[in-house]
Amino acid sequence: MTRIETFKALTRDIDGIHKPLLALGLFKLWSLIFGLIPLFLYSFLVNHVLVDQKLHELWPVIAGFLAVFLLTTIGIAAAKRFSNQLILKFDLRIKNKLLKKYISLDSEVYSNYSIGDVKSRIENDSAVAGKFFTTHVLDFIYAVVYAIALAVILLCYDWRIVLLSFIFVPVSLVTVNFLGGKAKRTGEELWKLQIQYESFLHANFQNWKDIKTNNLEDAQLAELNGHYKKIRPIWFLNQLYMHLGITYSFFTKNFITQLFIYFIGGAFVIKGYSEVGVLLVFINFYGQFFGFIENISNAMMNYKSDSVNIEKVIGILNVETDKRPYKKIAGTGLTVDNLRFTYEGNDSFALDGISFSVSKGEHLAIVGQSGSGKSTLAKLLTGQIKPQAGAIQIGGVDIHTVSGESVSGKVSIVVQEPVLFNMTIRENLLLAKAGATDAELIGCCRRARIYDFIETLQDHLDTIIGEKGVKLSGGQRQRLSIARAFLQDRDIIIFDESTSALDNENESDIITELKSLSSGKTMISIAHRLSTIVDCDKVMVLKDGRVAAFDTHDNLRNRNEPYDLLFQSQYMTG
Ligand SMILES: Nc1ncnc2c1ncn2[C@@H]1O[C@H](COP(=O)(O)OP(=O)(O)OP(=O)(O)O)[C@@H](O)[C@H]1O
């Protein structure tokens, strides 16, 4: 992407950039103007004060230099302050926007991104994109304008000689552009390898317990070395191209430019410009001009390399998000009509022709063999994935015609492996209801049969529970997650094997509690225990993604073959 395309893409998605950018641009212009004045002062000093020996004019020149120094310093300091502020502000805005985008992605779209990819885009790539406006827009324009201004001044001296020496400028820029292209291609490859490495590291940290218990340390170290073996040659190539580009512009500035300076000096003498002053001033301007050409070359090189990261950020910003309207859903009854769903890349349907309804206050149990589609149905009912055909209606509203927030305001799901953060119990609970009082938190924890345990902890609700709640047992994690569902207090609650780690007594206590609370609530349990199923108003049996039976437990028992088989194999032990 060119700078202009990148500028448009980033400003389209991130607001509030134009004003601070304009302010910063004005300070840059200030620095540019006051940066050019010393050249004229220098010219005056050499030609009038030194060559013409008008030493009494030295004081105004010194005063001029001091004034310019003061004003330039003010300009540079202000520009630095504004640019730091802009970078930090913009970096944070991009991170916010990216996180928001990721959270609003369809779970199917999200599953296309690895952890390393997400982490890299939010952490590293956004930081590079955050500097785009200062480094790749303002600094670049500054160098170009400065170089043009110097070129015009030089042309005024002797356009033929200057034009001859300018031949080297396009050669230099084309070479750097070529090397930059190579650096970009290797940068792309490096980025892919690095996100694989990041994902590996993430999985390693997440599963360190299992790695130790299964003696996988050596295998993990071998994998780490494997990643480095792949990364090393590409990294080397990438650095080689980058440094070739930078060394090339350094060489151009310090050798080729010097060569031209001697050439131009000779030409001046041959053409009879005897004044030393003219030659000195010209050489000074010329050296500065090539200094800016070096800056432009380096900026081109760096932009090629940074655009790998910036394009990753824009890639996510461009992903379409949910544009469906928010609607408060009034009713609580759930109707599912002829639902069909296939996971991307799978040949067979995970669910096919699913139809059923659950009325307000009813409790439905969903049972079925492993892989029969129970969790997929739960994901569809919460709007996490969209069906290829059919409809799900809550209170008469098709949930796929309204925004995700409309559905999550109505339905909550408690899963087998709850999402818990390395924060305190209180903070984990408050995620469900910001601003809940202690009395509310304690009440919900009591109902979820977790408060007795919390009371035994030294810091009570303020105990930090570790990464993914590692300091809690499986059952305690599930109870905390159920307490969160109580806090959310949605009209429809789905339990996806969410009591699997509880003992029978705790599970039945929680179910009783739910029932007492949920006179008006609709509940769906993906059940694994007989006690849960027997208590439910209806049981739906899923087999190979289809509804094999839908009735009460009493009507199904001994009368429905799939249910009986399942019952004997799974629930007789419940
Ligand atoms: N993210 C996914 N991508 C591709 N296929 C998937 C995905 N998740 C589930 N499936 C497939 O969809 C089918 C239904 O899976 P699902 O998880 O809904 O079954 P389940 O009844 O909940 O199983 P279990 O009782 O073992 O949890 C399975 O064949 C499974 O392999």
UniProtKB/TrEMBL annotation:
InterPro entries, alphabetized: AAA+_ATPase, ABC1_TM_dom, ABC1_TM_sf, ABC_transporter-like_ATP-bd, ABC_transporter-like_CS, P-loop_NTPase, Type_1_exporter
Coiled coil, from the record: none
Protein's organism: Paenibacillus helianthi
PANTHER family xref list: ATP-BINDING CASSETTE SUB-FAMILY B, TRANSPORT ATP-BINDING PROTEIN CYDC
Residue ranges constituting the ABC transporter domain according to the UniProt record: 334-569
Localization (cell): Cell membrane
Keyword Membrane: yes
Keywords: ATP-binding, Membrane, Nucleotide-binding, Transmembrane, Transmembrane helix
Record domain ABC transmembrane type-1: where: 33-305
Regions crossing the membrane: 21-46, 58-79, 137-155, 161-180
Identification of the protein by name: ABC transporter ATP-binding protein
SMART domains in the record: AAA
Main location: membrane
Protein topology in the membrane: Multi-pass membrane protein
